[in-house]
């Protein structure tokens, strides 16, 4: 018999019970009775005054409307039987540790999308509070979704604090030594560095170094990136593929000085630069090239990285900021919330791809929302088109969702 569940007046039908669960409660896959194709997650939480206040606050904020990459509750109800029910958008994909193995450029892009979402949360007064591999969902096309925001912290002092500290593999040193047992923005920055490391190297920073809890606590509390302490293995990705800037960010991310840990905007800017300077050597090894790069970090063969001076200047209209982006032949430039800070939620994380080739640019729409191009006094829907390299006198005018930009 089909089981129906009502949550705050929304009738749902359970498709798969006991889809999974965590420390905060059980989850089920459901669909709306009136919209069978709309999948949702039904989550059960243990009822308390604090849990209800926190759930209702998240529902009022409606983060999933801010960005579809936030799988945050949209309605909730205390059923009076010891349970609070939430309805949450269903995120397609798998958690980080179940994802397929991806090449370095895609993993850098995943890190970029992840930190951009953390930044967007912060800009709206919320800290995730439980950053972990199980709480980042990756779709087959690489789309990143943040899930399980039950452990969040809010800038609003009326919101009760979470009753969880986070997941042990991700904890900051001050949480491990019990000097700060509550999650904080700074402990979240530590967890963000841990997760970025896991995305790029496909393992926890202490894997192969320690198994026992006390030993893991030791390596996670040294004040530097544990990857430096690993004995090199021929199958390991060399740290050198990231370049010095990202390696330095990781060391600061694992710092014992909570104020030294980089926030999401600093990570975002460094990852954008890394993606713009990502090369693939003849041996197949991808790496972030720097001025001092003289050899491939993978095979050791000498390489010459030519200096690039060509730039595209991107202006957000009418009076928004200007972005300078390096142009390298056959290296795509991606525009969207991931690479252009402060864009409205209607602009996709990856919206437009620009591929330079010779004196031409291939413009390709890759986002969820429409892209328009201005040509001879009229807007046209853009899917894919070759255009001449623009200039100050012949700019390209585009509309990304409801945002207008020029490229020259």
From TrEMBL:
EC top class named in words: transferase
EC number annotated for this UniProt entry: 2.7.11.1
Database matches in InterPro entries: Kinase-like_dom_sf, Prot_kinase_dom, SMAD_FHA_dom_sf, Tyr_kinase_AS
SMART domains: S_TKc (SM00220)
GO molecular function annotation: ATP binding; protein serine/threonine kinase activity
Domain (Protein kinase): residue spans on this chain: 13-280
Protein name: Serine/threonine-protein kinase PknF
Gene for this chain: pknF
């Amino acid at each position: 018999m089909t089981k129906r569940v009502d949550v705050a007046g929304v009738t749902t039908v359970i498709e798969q019970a006991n889809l999974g669960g965590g420390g905060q409660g059980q989850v089920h896959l459901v669909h709306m009775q009136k919209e069978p194709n709309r999948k949702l997650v039904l989550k059960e939480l243990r009822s308390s005054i604090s849990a209800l206040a926190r759930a209702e606050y998240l529902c009022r904020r409606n983060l999933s409307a801010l960005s579809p990459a936030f799988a945050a509750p949209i309605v909730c109800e205390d059923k009076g039987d010891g349970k609070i029910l939430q309805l949450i958008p269903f995120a397609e994909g798998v958690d980080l540790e179940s994802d397929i193995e991806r090449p370095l450029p895609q993993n850098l892009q995943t890190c970029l999308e992840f930190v951009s979402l953390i930044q967007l949360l912060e800009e709206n007064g919320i800290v995730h509070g439980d950053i972990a591999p199980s709480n980042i969902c990756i779709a087959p096309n690489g789309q990143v979704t943040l899930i399980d925001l039950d452990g969040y912290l809010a800038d609003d002092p009326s919101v009760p604090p979470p009753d969880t500290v986070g997941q042990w593999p991700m904890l900051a040193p001050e949480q491990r030594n019990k000097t700060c047992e509550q999650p904080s923005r700074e402990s979240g920055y530590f967890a963000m560095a841990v997760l970025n490391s896991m995305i790029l190297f496909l393992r926890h920073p202490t894997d192969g170094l320690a198994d026992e809890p006390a030993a893991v606590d030791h390596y996670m509390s040294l004040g530097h990136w544990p990857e430096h302490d690993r004995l090199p293995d021929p199958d390991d990705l060399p740290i050198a593929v990231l370049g010095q800037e990202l390696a330095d960010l990781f060391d600061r991310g694992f710092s014992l000085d909570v104020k030294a840990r980089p926030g999401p905007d600093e990570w975002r800017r460094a990852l954008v630069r890394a993606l713009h300077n990502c090369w693939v050597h003849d041996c197949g090894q991808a790496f972030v090239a720097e001025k001092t790069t003289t050899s491939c970090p993978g095979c050791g063969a000498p390489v010459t990285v030519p200096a690039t001076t060509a730039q595209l200047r991107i202006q957000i209209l009418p009076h928004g900021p200007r972005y300078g982006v390096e142009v390298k032949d056959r290296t795509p430039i991606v525009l969207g919330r991931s690479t252009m800070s402060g864009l409205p939620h209607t602009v996709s994380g990856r919206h437009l791809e620009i591929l330079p080739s010779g004196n031409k640019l291939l413009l390709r729409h890759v986002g969820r929302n429409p892209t328009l191009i201005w040509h001879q006094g009229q807007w046209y829907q853009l899917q894919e088109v070759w255009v001449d390299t623009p200039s100050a006198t012949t700019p390209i005018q585009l509309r990304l969702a409801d945002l207008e930009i020029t490229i020259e």
